[in-house]
Automatic annotation (TrEMBL):
Residue stretches in coiled coil: none
Superkingdom of the source species: Bacteria
GO molecular function: oxidoreductase activity
SUPFAM superfamilies with a match to the protein in the record: GroES-like (SSF50129), NAD(P)-binding Rossmann-fold domains (SSF51735)
Domain Alcohol dehydrogenase-like C-terminal, residue spans: 179-300
Protein name: Dehydrogenase
Length: 339
């Protein structure tokens, strides 16, 4: 048996009786070193039924991907670093003790199992979990595994920037300085973008955006960011109704809008503004495997310093409290779970 934190009735609870998973062919058993708490985990804890319903409503979504019983314990945790313990039968992999991370997907005999939320596939909020050998990425020697655990959210930011078509001379406006907005700022800085503006109501998060590479930060309470800056590319990392329409109204002619914020409510936009200004809108999700590896390399080489993002660290018995604490944007950005 092993320890883990699981979602039960909308709350994270501690368990010490979770069966230790057994690796199959092509899999490895790993010891979790650190796992970041993601905003999507918080959202699922509060709105799991809504998330599952929206996922199931998408045409072409395999039923297995959304087969989650909300009345049973749910495993989560997809921003992790780990250490190899043992390999499954007939499986060649890195030696035991090798620090690794991975795209949060488990390749199993029954198919692909996302490591996001599941009643059966254990995630990073546990002492041990299974990973797939073909997807393992070794953590460069000497890199703090706590920092390596932030590879996943940094890859989300890199993917958004890659999709934007931005060039160094373009002005970028990042709306929202939560973890994904901050990851976008960091990726823009590594791209060499010469004018990065970040906007957020939280003073602490504006300071964090500056520390991560923003050249200018704005408080929307003082007026629309578009009154101060004329961006070529706008990154929406807020995910609440009304933001996209406001960008279409205020952005300059020919601007590009990259939507990285996940809005779960119905939203209304006026296409006229986008049409009249010929605004290009790009929705983005997750990342490509190469972007995941590139993000880990950027962290390892010091081109992205993720240390300022880590504002707390808890054990498995305090994950529930950490979920509550993350509701205060002035207090926390990223809390790590270290089993």
């Amino acid at each position: 048996m092993m320890r883990a934190a699981v979602l039960r009735d909308g709350r994270m609870v501690y368990r010490d009786d979770v069966p230790e998973p057994t690796p199959g062919q092509g899999q490895v058993l790993v010891e979790v070193l650190a796992c970041g708490i993601c905003g999507s985990d918080l959202h699922f804890a509060a709105h799991g039924e809504q998330v599952l319903a929206a996922t199931q409503a998408m045409a072409g979504t395999p039923a297995a991907e959304t087969a989650v019983d909300l009345d049973a314990d749910i495993f989560m945790g997809h921003e992790f670093s780990a250490r190899v313990l043992a390999a499954g039968p007939d499986t060649d992999t890195f030696p035991a003790g090798t620090p690794v991370t991975s795209i949060p997907v488990l390749l199993a005999a029954k198919g692909i199992e996302p490591i996001v939320y599941s009643n059966t596939t254990v995630g990073g909020y546990a002492e041990k979990m299974l990973l797939s050998t073909p997807l393992l990425v070794p953590i460069p020697n000497g890199l703090d595994p706590r920092h390596a655990a932030l590879t996943e959210p940094m890859a989300v930011g890199l993917h958004a920037v890659n999709k934007s078509g931005i060039t160094p001379g373009d002005t970028a406006l990042v709306l929202g300085c939560g973890p994904i907005g901050i990851a976008i700022v960091a990726a823009l800085r590594t791209y060499g973008v010469e004018h990065i503006v970040a906007a957020d109501y939280s003073h602490a998060r504006r300071d964090l955006a500056t520390a991560m590479g923003a050249h200018q930060s704005l408080d929307p309470a003082d007026g629309s960011p578009f009154d101060t800056v004329t961006p070529k590319v706008v990154f929406e990392a807020i995910g609440v109704p009304g933001i996209i329409d406001d960008v279409l109204r205020r952005a300059p002619v020919g601007a590009r809008l990259v939507v990285a914020g996940v809005c779960m409510q119905p939203d209304t936009v006026h296409p006229f503004f986008g049409v009249a200004k010929e605004i290009n809108v790009q929705f983005v999700l997750a990342y490509e495997p190469a972007e995941f590896a590139a993000s880990l390399q950027a962290i390892a080489e010091g081109r992205i310093d993720v240390a300022p993002l880590i504002t707390g660290e808890v054990g498995l018995d305090a994950v529930g409290t950490a979920f509550d604490d993350l509701a205060d944007p002035d207090r926390h950005c990223k809390i790590l779970v270290t089993p």
